[in-house]
């Protein structure tokens, strides 16, 4: 049996990776799990939670999956991509998929463009329709600075072990991501230790890559990569 775990990002929830999880469920008989990291989900309660709790929770979920399945894949989005990389170093994971993975974060150039769009929508009285404003308004209010510090610590701890990733890896990144800059994907591609790795850029995609207009192409690429033998 094959198992696949999809891990969401910082201040996120399973919805971030749900479209990919559903795509794989519809096309395979794999056991698909999408955990909710501590303090995350529909209601953010991040105060007092240290980064190692996020890693431990993902480890526990992965261990359960490993007990049930002969082969296990891990997919990580944004901060989840760093956690997925960590898991692939310490557990018998067969393949790794990194989506908008946050080895770096905040792409100022694109963020200013997105803020410009928000401003224009605000002037036109359409701010409530602006997807980025709606998503991030709630997050900004509900994210304590201590949680952001924990996120940065997690990145700082995991980046030095990327060279220990030795399994086949697919890295996908949106070119107009305002949260994680494209250089993050290139950094991951250069740093991870495996020779079996592929990097793809999606020209029209922002940070929520599983919800972008190019998602069907992305999902087909992920599915093909995971089911390919000997890759």
Keywords:
231 residues, alpha/beta, six-stranded parallel beta sheet, 8 helices, 45% helix
Question: How would you characterize this protein structure?
Answer:
This protein is an alpha/beta fold. The protein is 45% helix and 14% strand. It contains eight helices and six strands; from the N terminus they run βαβαβαβαααβαβα. Strands 2-1-3-4-5-6 form a six-stranded parallel beta sheet, with helices on both faces. Strand 5, helix 7 and strand 6 form a beta-alpha-beta unit. Helix 2 crosses helix 3 and helix 3 runs parallel beside helix 6. The longest helix has 18 residues. The protein is globular. The two termini are 18 Å apart.
Topology (SSEs and partners):
Blueprint: E1 2-7, H1 18-27, E2 31-33, H2 51-68, E3 71-77, H3 79-90, E4 95-99, H4 108-123, H5 131-142, H6 145-158, E5 169-174, H7 182-191, E6 197-202, H8 215-227
Parallel strand pairs: 1-2, 1-3, 3-4, 4-5, 5-6
Helix pairs in contact: 2-3, 3-6
Protein name: Alpha/beta hydrolase
Keywords: Hydrolase
Domain Serine aminopeptidase S33: 5-210
Largest sheet: 6 strands, parallel
Mean pLDDT: 89
The portion of residues assigned to helices is: 40-55%
SS content category? alpha/beta
Topology pattern, helix = H, strand = E = EHEHEHEHHHEHEH
- How many helices? The count is 8
Low-confidence stretches: none
Strand fraction equals 5-15%
Radius of gyration: 17 Å
**What's the β-strand tally?**
6
Q: End-to-end span in angstroms?
A: 18 Å
* Main sheet: strand order: 2-1-3-4-5-6
Oligomer: single chain
Pfam families: Hydrolase_4
Keywords: Hydrolase
GO molecular function: hydrolase activity
Protein name: Alpha/beta hydrolase
């Amino acid at each position: 049996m094959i198992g696949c775990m999809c891990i969401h990002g910082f201040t996120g929830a399973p919805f971030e990776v749900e479209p990919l999880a559903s795509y794989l469920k519809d096309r395979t008989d794999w056991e698909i799990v999408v955990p909710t990291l501590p303090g995350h989900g529909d209601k953010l309660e991040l105060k007092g939670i240290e980064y190692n709790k996020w890693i431990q929770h993902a480890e526990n979920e992965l261990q359960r999956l490993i007990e049930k399945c002969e082969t296990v894949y891990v997919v990580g989005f944004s901060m989840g991509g760093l956690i997925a990389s960590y898991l692939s170093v310490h557990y018998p994971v067969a393949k790794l998929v990194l989506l908008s993975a946050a080895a770096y974060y905040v792409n100022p150039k694109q963020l200013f463009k997105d803020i410009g769009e928000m401003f224009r929508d605000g002037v036109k009285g359409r701010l409530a329709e602006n997807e980025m404003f709606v998503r991030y308004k709630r997050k900004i209010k509900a994210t304590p600075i201590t949680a952001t510090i924990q996120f940065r610590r997690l990145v700082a701890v995991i980046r030095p072990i990327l060279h220990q990733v030795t399994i086949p890896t697919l890295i996908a990144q949106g070119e107009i991501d305002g949260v994680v800059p494209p250089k993050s994907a290139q950094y991951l591609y250069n740093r991870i230790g495996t020779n079996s790795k592929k990097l793809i850029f999606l020209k029209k995609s922002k940070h929520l890559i599983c919800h972008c207009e190019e998602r069907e192409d992305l999902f087909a690429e992920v599915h093909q990569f995971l089911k390919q033998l000997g890759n």
